[in-house]
């Protein structure tokens, strides 16, 4: 049972929301900010789990940056920003093709 491995699940459930939060964050935030017990629980959660939350944030930020940089590179290749290279010349070069395949593979696995 997954709950056996996470005793804090029930404790913090009033302040951990599902994807409905993204549609109306102000409603959920107001609930947490106006109920004293939830404010204290939220502060406790931050104190106990801030390092883990920061690590996940950095992970997702890095994935986003990788994808954004990769797409920008593809777009710049297509637009001819690089004088000596186009998307076609990179794909015709064995090493360029290998690097593009690896970059796309990493993009897909993230």
Low-pLDDT windows of residues: none
The mean pLDDT is 91
Shape: elongated
Return Rg in Å: 22 Å
Helicity range: over 70%
SSE sequence, one letter per element: HHHHHH
What is the total tally of β strands? 0
The termini sit apart by 28 Å
Structure overview:
There is one protein chain. This protein is mainly α. 77% of the residues lie in helices and 0% in strands. It contains 6 helices and no strands. Helix 3 packs antiparallel against helix 4 (36-79). 0% of the residues are buried. The mean pLDDT is 91.
Features:
110 residues; mainly alpha
Any chance you could write out the topology, listing elements then pairs?
Blueprint: H1 2-5, H2 8-12, H3 25-34, H4 36-79, H5 87-92, H6 94-109
Provide a concise account of the structure shown.
The protein is mainly α and 110 residues long. The protein contains six helices and no strands. Helix 3 packs antiparallel against helix 4 (36-79).
């Amino acid at each position: 049972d997954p709950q056996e491995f996470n005793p804090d699940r029930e404790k913090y459930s009033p302040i951990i929301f599902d994807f409905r939060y993204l549609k109306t964050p102000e409603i959920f935030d107001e609930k947490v900010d106006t109920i004293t017990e939830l404010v204290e629980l939220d502060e406790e959660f931050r104190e106990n789990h801030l390092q883990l939350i920061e690590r996940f944030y950095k992970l997702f930020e890095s994935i986003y940056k990788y994808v954004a940089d990769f797409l920008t590179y593809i777009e710049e290749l297509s637009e001819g920003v690089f004088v000596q290279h186009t998307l076609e010349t990179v794909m015709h070069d064995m090493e360029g093709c290998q690097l593009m395949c690896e970059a796309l593979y990493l993009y897909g696995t993230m």
